[in-house]
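2024-03-11 09:14:02 DEBUG pipeline.ingest accepted 1 chain
2024-03-11 09:14:02 DEBUG pipeline.ingest length=403
2024-03-11 09:14:03 DEBUG pipeline.predict start
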Amino acid sequence: MFLKIWNFLRGYVKIGLSGFSVERFINMAAYRGVYFWDVRPEGGEITLKCSIAAFRQLRPHGKKTRVRFRVLGRYGLPFVLHRYRARKLLAAGVLLFAAGLYFLASFIWLVEISGNDRLENSQILEFLEENGLGIGAFRGTINYRDMEIALLAHFPADIAFASVSIRGTRAMIDIYETIQPPEIIDTSIPADIIAAKDGLIISIATSAGTPQVRPGDVVAAGDVLVAGELRIAASDYDETLYHSEYVRAASRVLARMYYTLVLEVPLDIVERVFTGNIVRNRAIIISERNFNIWRPRANFTESDIITKETQLILGRNYPMPFWLITTEYREYELVRRRRSLDEAMHFAYEQLTARILADFAEAEIIRQELEFFEGNNSVHIEVFLVTIERIDEVKEIDVLAED
């Protein structure tokens, strides 16, 4: 990239070579230290590119080898300046524009964050801006190492490693988050296991506590499944004599659950039908100020509004503080129509399927039955579900209240 910029600044020409000694001409020029590039055959001649100074050195070699060459193009800043040498205001404008771009390239105009899953971008961006790394920050005042240390110190429980780098006017923040430690359960606090839902007990696997139910029992929400109270007999001869010790009950209880889901889908609906009429409003945002380029009127009764924001980027790593905002107004009409029976049933099935996937993601569905009922203006769908799922829930015991 830098070589291309350098060649543009000093100027270069493209020439075409023809004759019987083109190879000898190229070897002679290379031996003399004449630099050229992009050598390739085109048609019946060989083309190459060289600087203006090298072009002057090639002429004597052409005469010696009797190679004919012609100029195919002139490129670069010297030729541009020569072409517009009489237009001083234009030249001044170009210089001012270049100076402005150089000045703007000294600031940060885009901050990109990657690698964060738990932390929100807004949290990191807010912290960076408070510490001098935000939109509009001067690149020369940013200390990468200090910024990395500050991130680690501010988010010690969430960030294990942070890397800050600047490419052009783009700040790259790479985050590596910490591994969350497992939840620590205080086993010294006594607790019961209660039923979170109504159900039919299928299995119970207890590692601590006294089971109060067995497979085949029907329980209601709130019933104690495993008690945290351990009754220890004080006498081998009198079962009424005992003392209680309390533990934190632990158990995995599976139960069979029964659900009935009902959905009613109307046959008469109102739909949006787009007419194809679109009005676009374009504006440029410069330093948080909005300048409308083109703002036609959208006299639509009903319309969808779609906004697209694009930042001006020069090259790959030079975002600029200019944003093009395009707002589209898409007209639509509200049209009443009647669904067919198959269409209504298909819509109802999709809605219920999405609900089942969302509400029973952790349950094992062992039975599913669907029934459709057609009414005058609607379709009713009922789904009968049988699932197996965990219903155990921890409830801490107030030992003083028990005593």
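2024-03-11 09:14:41 DEBUG pipeline.report The chain has a mean pLDDT of 84.
2024-03-11 09:14:41 DEBUG pipeline.predict end
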